Amino acid sequence: MIELLNKVPLFSKLNHQQLEAISTICTKKTFKPGTVLFNEKEPGSIFYILSSGSIKIYTATSSGEEMILSLMKAGDSFGELSLIDGKPRSASAQTLEESVLISITAPSFIGLMKTHFDISLGIMQEMCSRLRDTNQHVQDRTFLDARTRVIKSLITLANKNGTRTGNSITIKMTLNYDEVSQMAGVQKPVLMQVIRDLQDKRLLSLNGQEMRLDLGQLRA
Predict the structure, then answer these.
(1) How far is CA 69 from CA 57, 117, 124, 203, in A?
(2) What does the pLDDT look like over 94-106, one tens digit per residue?
(3) Angle between helices 177-184 and 146-161 (to 10 degrees)
(4) C-beta neighbour count of 126 within 10 angstroms
(5) In what order do the strands lie in the sheet with 168-172?
(6) Phi, psi of 28 (to 5 degrees)
(7) Side-chain half-sphere of 186: how many Cα atoms within 13 Å?
């Protein structure tokens, strides 16, 4: 557990003794792909840290349409908001692939924040980052055309989950096309048209579950 915690940016400034103390309040568990960790509007009781795998954070409209708010990668933490303000979950969380998660219960999480200022500061910084991302997401949907939103979403996926070699990024696709279209805020036919256009221009190539982007050409 200490080895896992040591790789988490949130705990990067803690010494071995502190990590050892934190390990006693943590639980590690592996989840299958497609597991819903919690649903929007449920009471929150657990704080999560993603050790490996990927998670989508999303919300749903009254008609059941999903909107992906963010993707979590290894080292990211989530689920803290409802533990801090005591209100129901503001979004849902689901595994996209087999994922190993470290969980901390609400009472232990609050005690952790009281004891370790570095952790409290890290959590506040992460919350600020997500708020900025949400604001940018709203602006994108308001002011950007559909094609630009798709391209920007692909670049976001590349930055989050890609492996870069020069100007080329290879992305292991954990989202399906329906989910990518939700993330971009476009209809699936629009997404597919943009992808075909990028393929025709050799800016994007597909190989099974992998996608390769030429970022230099995309930015141009």
Answers:
(1) 6, 28, 18, 26
(2) 999 999 999 999 9
(3) 110
(4) 16
(5) 162-165, 168-172, 210-214, 204-207
(6) -110, 135
(7) 24
Q: Are the C-beta atoms of 182 and 58 separated by less than 8 Å?
A: yes
Burial 67-79 (b: 16+ CB within 10 A, else e): ebbbbbeeebbbb
CB half-sphere exposure, 205, CA atoms < 13 A:
7
Q: Which of 139, 31, 146, 127 is nearest to 77 (CA)?
A: 127
Task: For 124-179, give the DSSP string.
Answer: HHHHHHHHHHHHHHHHHHHHS-HHHHHHHHHHHHHHHHEEEETTEEEEE--S-HHH
Residues 32 and 73: beta-carbon distance below 8 Å: no
Q: How much is the pLDDT for 220?
A: 65
Distance CA 87, CA 89 (A): 7
Asked if 45 contacts 104 with a C-beta cutoff of 8 angstroms, the reply is: no
Alpha carbons 57 and 187: distance in angstroms, whole number: 19
Q: Which residues pair with 193 in a beta bridge?
A: none
- pTM passes above 0.85: no
CA distance 178 to 74: 23
CA distance 55 to 76: 10
Using one digit for the tens of pLDDT, what is the confidence trace for 109-120?
A: 999 889 888 888
**Contact, 100 vs 72, CB < 8 A?**
no
pLDDT value of residue 219: 67
Q: Please report where in the chains the tokens 């050799």 appear, as a residue.
A: 202
